[in-house]
Amino acid sequence: MNKVLAIETIRYKPQPNILWVRVHADNGMVGLGETFYLPGAVEAVIHDMIADFVLDQPVFNTERIWDTVFSWANFYGFAGAEMRALSALDIALWDLKGQLTGQPIHNLMGGECRADIPVYNTCVDSGQYRDQHDFMNQPEVLARNLLSEGIRALKMWPWDQFAPKFRSGTHTGPAGWLSTGHSGSYLSERDLQKGLECVKRIRDSVGDQMEIMIEGHSRWDLNNAIRIGRALEPYRILWMEDMIKPQSAQDLLRLSRETRVPHSISERLITRHAFRDVLESGAAHIIMPDLIWTGGLTEGKKIAVMADAYHLSIAPHDCTGLVALYANLHLCAASMNAMILETVRGFYRGGWYSEVYTENIEVNAGRATFPKRAGLGTALREELLASPAVQVRTSRKG
Questions:
Q1: 25 - beta bridge partners?
Q2: Which residues pair with 11 in a beta bridge?
Q3: What is the C-alpha separation between 213 and 215, in angstroms, rounded?
Q4: pTM here?
Q5: How far is it, in rounded angstroms, from Cα 391 to Cα 43?
Q6: Is there a contact between 187 and 162 (Cβ–Cβ < 8 Å)?
Q7: pLDDT for 52-101, tens place per residue?
Q8: Which DSSP string do the residues of 60-74 spell out, in sequence order?
Q9: In this predicted model, what pLDDT tens digit does every residue of 347-369 receive, in sequence order?
Q10: Contacts 24+ apart (CB under 8 A), 161-165
Q11: Exposed/middle/buried for residue 348 (C-beta within 10 Å: 0-12, 13-18, 19+)
């Protein structure tokens, strides 16, 4: 029986928010996981807490390992670095299970439900693309450019710029604002209309050829979220996402009832227990788990099944690394209710994915194909692991 021999954490200076987790089996195979944000805290959880539970355990015991780590973390509060660490570990174990059986992960989760899946482009500036700049300044040009590549859906956040700002030396984004911050309690009519102009210009330029998603980043209180939602109603938006902080299912329900735009909830909900509250209250139309935060593939599959029981689709979140995207591909392949896949073209088209990972995703005519290799389907490049910009920490059996 293959057991866990060692656990590595890997940090890479050019990607300071990412932590990779590699699990070594006693037969020499290596599984890869990943998470995002505060990698130092997650790294400490891996080595100071999780390793003790995982080393020398059978690789295939993902359910028992998951519940053991969660039960310990739940004793003192689980929904932070502990869950990001468990998420990365869980994906690495699934990668190992696939390699050991010679199967892509989705075959172990029920097999392919479809041949491919449509993608949408989250419009961040990266690589050769300035998609955030363009949705703010020339959204019609951006829409036509995406359509020329076969991409028929985009996500943008035109009202973040008007939300309350906070600044720090390391966390301030473009033009002094970014996606995180306080919830705004005032949005002027002028700024409401200015944000809406991005949507109008896309509709005027390409009509219904382009699906539009609006990201809220939880930057608004309930009243302003309702105002934005009502302003968007004539423009046939595919969904609004996280317009308010998602921790109150009742407030999300009120937002859903008082606007006619579908609501996507939420990468910020941790574990199936949080999603259960949203599903039971009827507060969401699309379920958006983030597999590298909410508990990995073990938990992601449970969330997908729960959503299906309520006749709702899943659209997994990702604006981070390729391991997260590959995990999403496997979940979407094996879930009948998968709707669409989030991607960033600046990451996978000539971007940093190709510099870091052995295999990239394949997107053709706006659709992504599923990995065929055993396990996850990608790994870290050997030259990356040898780079002086890499920091590795290892816990071993004994």
A1: 4
A2: 19, 391
A3: 7
A4: 0.96
A5: 11
A6: yes
A7: 999 999 999 999 999 999 999 999 988 999 999 999 999 999 999 999 99
A8: T-HHHHHHHHHHHHH
A9: 999 999 999 999 999 999 999 99
A10: 161/136, 161/195, 162/187, 162/188, 162/191, 162/194, 162/195, 163/217, 163/219, 163/220, 164/219
A11: buried
